[in-house]
Amino acid sequence: MRNVDAAGLGIGDDHPPRIMGVLNVSEESPYDPSVYDDPGEAAAYVDEELIGEGADIVDVGLESANKDLDVLSAEQELDRLDTAVETLESTSGDAVWSIETRYHEVADEAISRGFDMVNDICGFADSEMPRVCREHDVAVSKMASPPDLERPGAIEDVDEIYEALSMNGLTDKTILDPAFGGWSVEKTHEDDRETFHRLREFRGYGRPLLVSINRKSFLRTIAGRSTEAALPVSLAATSMAVERGAHVIRTHDVAETRDAALVGAEFARDRYRSGGGADGVAVEELDVTSVAEARRHLDRLGAAGVTDDGRSVASSAVVHTFELTGLDDPAVGALRAATVGGDATGAAFALGDPAATETAPSAADGGTDAGAPEDRRGLLIGTPAAVDSVREAVSGASKPLDAALDGIDLHVS
């Protein structure tokens, strides 16, 4: 995983989660607590409510993300930049300042006047944006979007979101944003939930991730909350996002989000890493929990997706454990034969012993006799590829087992 230096602020796996607080100098913004058009009042808000509460980055928006409003031109954004710059110059707290824009002209001017990084909400739809960021040597957050300056975030399908992040390339200091919400009329809550569910896949680029999920409707509708009452669901999702690999959390609720992010980081997977030294081999255990996530990393490396004998490499990346209950004698025999000996598939099967468990039901207490088919259970352990090999090997031995393994195959494939 590449780390990014944003004006001295480290972002990536080697650093704690970073909090991006939001300031809007647009009166159209839908979230009033962060909207200011007076530089003095805006500076006080930044010092007290953002930096003072733990924000590492201050992201300044020049226009609203409301998809029902007209998109501002570069000239109109530049007209509002003075307020943002005056605010920056009037604050006393220490933070990295980010300008949210889609135009390279605005980014260039903002950086020249003191901003430290860029939050490109159109994901390099302006093809000159990467050049500007490289020339200034600044970090840039790239939000997944179609090649259209008027439709930021307007992509629904997770695979298309992933592909959009490669549009017009990446700089050495690019941070990726999979675009929750956005300005797409077609994007549904289920689309956003699917993206969140598959968030680890976006680590496949090997770049830091930014998520903007604060009080988003795809979260608050789960609990039936209004925007004003949606803080708890945002915090729950924040911990989950960090645990799944997010490095920057963009939020209006800085103090609470910071705490939730630290909890997520504390309970994230402990993965092995070794630098290897000048002549050694470096090692990084990747955060992979699904076949799809493994495929993303294979694509990043340009590695072959299949072995010489035609097996999927990605399907060997994750081990699943399934408890099978109600096994009859043919099923047990077939599973043992498929997982033991010279023709073993790479999966393992262990049959349980009801007599060895204190809670095993018995005929005396209204249960069944120990060892009856409905009481016979065992664990089947293996990668998706190994479990699929077991399914093929035992096919026809037991109809109930065939049905169970077919269901597993649909789940893991």
Quick structural gist:
With 413 residues, the chain is α/β, with parallel strands linked by helices.
Can you give a write-up of this model?
Residues 356-376 are annotated as: Disordered. This is Dihydropteroate synthase. GO terms for molecular function: dihydropteroate synthase activity. The protein has 413 residues and is α/β, with parallel strands linked by helices. 34% of the residues lie in helices and 15% in strands. It is built from 13 helices and 15 strands. The protein has an 8-stranded parallel sheet with strand order 8-7-6-5-4-3-10-9. It is elongated. The mean pLDDT is 90.
Topology:
Elements lengths: L3 E3 L2 E3 L6 E7 L14 H12 L6 E5 L12 H17 L5 E6 L2 H9 L4 E4 L8 H8 L2 E5 L14 H7 L9 E4 L11 H9 L12 E3 L4 H7 L7 H13 L4 E4 L2 H13 L6 E2 L8 E2 L6 H11 L18 E6 L3 H11 L8 E4 L25 E6 L1 H11 L4 H14 L1
Parallel strand pairs: 3-4, 3-10, 4-5, 5-6, 6-7, 7-8, 9-10
Antiparallel strand pairs: 1-2, 11-12, 13-15, 14-15
Helix pairs in contact: 1-2, 2-3, 3-4, 6-7, 8-9, 11-12, 12-13
Mean pLDDT: 90
Return the structural class.
alpha/beta
Identify the overall geometry.
elongated
End-to-end Cα distance:
27 Å
Keywords:
413 residues, alpha/beta, eight-stranded parallel beta sheet, three-stranded antiparallel beta sheet, 13 helices, 15 strands, 34% helix, Dihydropteroate_synth-like_sf
